[in-house]
User: Which sequence fits this backbone?
């Protein structure tokens, strides 16, 4: 069975680096754990860190988090579906919201469960994903403040996730001004201005983050060390927290060019081959990993002397060329993954999950 490893020491080093950075700048750090897909083994290790808040976009994942650490504060980070209201109130201390009718249902359910449910109201800043329009937000807040068992604890915004609209000083100043207007008009304290995410971190180093932005929701940079804004890596962070390993289940020297009449493969793709390669051979390894688990576009081979030859639902073929490293059946092929690759792999029930450098 293919397996993915999480290096807990490297993850802890990344967390400590970010935690120190945010404390120095008086920012609350909330960890986005959705990349772990509710895996209890991985979450149990993550929650040993000095984490105050965890965000996730699946209620079932928040349920697992609460089962591990009941007192940790949890945030549901997308507008709630009406059918999930009861479980969101039960397992999420805070939720991000944009629809008044949904907040009314949260109010009703919170009263039923004898709870006060906290909410962060999201404002549209140009990314055109979730968010109340600026011209509507004052009336929106006024209506929400009248609901029972609901406490507005923040104003927030999302950028870069859908169309790649980057955060900048002007957009985040705008978010801070919204918060100031609300506090002034309604005489209410809004603790969180949640305008930060992984993509916003470089603004801290550039001294471009407005002082009013005091809450960051961070996932990708913690787990991959990525500087999303500049499409690079932070030098003081680890980018190899996760590694994927897959076993060679066949290794045979075969022709480079397939033989027969060509149609399309399982993904509907058709291929053309350089006819000058007819008669040539290379060593081809089949590994126990396939499109059902992850797409090769999200994988990076650690061994740069080998390459992908193709993939089907349950198997990936690797071209070993002359097999200079003398791979054999049973050996492991090692991969680095991007964010979407990790999401897919951890979410696959066919991939084993292992802790590296744990206690």
Assistant:
């Amino acid at each position: 069975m293919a397996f993915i490893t999480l290096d807990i020491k490297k993850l802890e080093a990344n967390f400590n680096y970010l935690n120190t950075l945010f404390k120095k700048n008086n920012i609350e750090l909330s960890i986005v754990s959705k990349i772990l897909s509710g895996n209890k083994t991985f979450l149990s290790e993550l929650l040993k860190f000095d984490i105050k808040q965890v965000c996730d976009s699946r209620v079932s994942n928040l349920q697992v988090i609460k089962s591990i650490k009941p007192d940790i504060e949890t945030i549901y980070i997308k507008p709630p579906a009406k059918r999930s209201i009861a479980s969101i109130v039960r397992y999420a201390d805070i939720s991000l919201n944009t629809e008044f009718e949904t907040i009314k249902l949260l109010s009703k359910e919170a009263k039923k469960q004898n709870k006060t449910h906290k909410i962060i109201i999201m404002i549209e800043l140009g990314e055109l994903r979730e968010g109340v329009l600026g011209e509507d937000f004052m009336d929106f807040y006024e209506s929400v403040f009248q609901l029972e068992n609901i406490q507005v604890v923040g104003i927030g915004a999302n950028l870069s996730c859908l169309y790649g609209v980057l955060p900048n000083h002007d957009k985040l100043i705008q978010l801070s001004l919204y918060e100031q207007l609300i506090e002034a008009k309604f005489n209410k304290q809004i603790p969180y201005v949640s305008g930060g995410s992984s993509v916003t971190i470089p603004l801290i180093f550039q001294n471009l983050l407005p002082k009013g932005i005091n809450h960051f929701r961070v996932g990708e940079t913690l787990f991959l060390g990525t500087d999303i804004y500049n499409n690079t890596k932070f030098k003081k962070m680890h980018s190899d927290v996760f590694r994927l390993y897959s076993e060679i289940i066949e290794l045979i020297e075969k022709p480079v060019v397939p033989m027969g009449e060509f149609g399309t493969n399982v993904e509907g793709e058709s291929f053309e081959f350089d006819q000058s390669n007819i008669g040539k051979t290379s060593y081809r390894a089949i590994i126990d990993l396939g499109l059902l688990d992850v797409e090769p576009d999200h994988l990076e081979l650690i061994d740069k002397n080998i390459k992908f030859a193709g993939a089907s639902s349950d198997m990936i073929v690797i071209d070993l060329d002359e097999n200079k490293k003398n791979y054999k059946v049973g050996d492991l092929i090692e991969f680095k993954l991007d964010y979407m690759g990790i999401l897919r792999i951890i979410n696959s029930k066919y991939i084993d999950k292992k802790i590296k450098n744990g206690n």
Remarks:
- The radius of gyration is 24 Å.
